[in-house]
Amino acid sequence: MALRSGQNGIQLLLGAEQEAQHIVNAARTAKQARLKQAKEEAEKESAEFRTQMEAEFQRKVAESSGDSGANVKRLEQETNAKIQHLKTEASRISHDVIQMLLRHVTTVKN
């Protein structure tokens, strides 16, 4: 009887050990599944963030390009104004410059 009781106890311990092993394996599998899910979620969030930052960057590039068009127009206006100012000044003093050049060219020095 003692042998039977000992044998029964061993069987009970082996059963408990197998059950514990199943629980550990299930927990390990669940942990791996959760880690995989967390990794996928992190990659998804990272991709969304990257997409958002890229869109913001493209928006800023578009804004600065738009400003570039405005800057080009402004610079063209400033350049045209300066050219007109130079033409006006040149026509205003051209007579004096011609007179000065003629005086120096026609003056003979010994």
Automatic annotation (TrEMBL):
Q: Is the Transport keyword given for this protein? A: yes
GO CC annotations on file: vacuolar proton-transporting V-type ATPase, V1 domain
Q: What does the UniProt keyword field contain?
A: Coiled coil, Hydrogen ion transport, Ion transport, Transport
GO molecular function (one)? ATP hydrolysis activity
A Pfam family annotated for this chain is V-ATPase_G
- Tell me if Coiled coil is a UniProt keyword of this record: yes
Coiled coil region boundaries: 25-59
The record's function comment reads: Subunit of the V1 complex of vacuolar(H+)-ATPase (V-ATPase), a multisubunit enzyme composed of a peripheral complex (V1) that hydrolyzes ATP and a membrane integral complex (V0) that translocates protons. V-ATPase is responsible for acidifying and maintaining the pH of intracellular compartments and in some cell types, is targeted to the plasma membrane, where it is responsible for acidifying the extracellular environment.
Q: Subunit arrangement?
A: V-ATPase is a heteromultimeric enzyme composed of a peripheral catalytic V1 complex (components A to H) attached to an integral membrane V0 proton pore complex (components: a, c, c', c'' and d).
What PANTHER family does the annotation carry?
Answer: V-TYPE PROTON ATPASE SUBUNIT G, VACUOLAR ATP SYNTHASE SUBUNIT G
Belongs to which family?
Answer: Belongs to the V-ATPase G subunit family.
Task: Report the protein name in the record.
Answer: V-type proton ATPase subunit G
At the highest ranks, the source species' classification is: Eukaryota, Viridiplantae, Streptophyta, Embryophyta, Tracheophyta
